[in-house]
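Chapter review: from sequence to fold.
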Amino acid sequence: MKLPLLFLSFLLLLTISCTETKTLEVTATAYNSVESQTKKGDAVTAAWGDQLKPGMKAVAVSRDLLQEEGIEHGSELQISGLPGTYRVLDKMNKRWKKKIDIYMGENVKQARAWGRQNVEITWEID
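The token string follows.
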């Protein structure tokens, strides 16, 4: 009986120790779910089909972060200067590099006040 429990404990420890935390400085802007900020005319559907709603802590990331840094759809990011955790639910046009776009619902004034800032993002990869 003790051997299976010991084995399961070892597997749990191995799984926990395989997680790596990464930090990177990126340029951060903000975006809103308004018609003028989308090409498709559908201001609430993100690139992977997620439905954005005001109040969500969501972020779009440049595609180089997806391809080179281990960030994936659904990854959770911490953004320096902002409380809480943001979920990657959108991706940006391929022309952008080392950039995130923070979702700010329909509050265009808040997004403009944010402007463009350099921030550090932190996330975990397996």
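Two observations follow directly from the output. Strands lie at 20-31, 58-61, 76-79, 86-91, 99-103, 117-125. The helical segments are 2-17, 63-68, 108-114.
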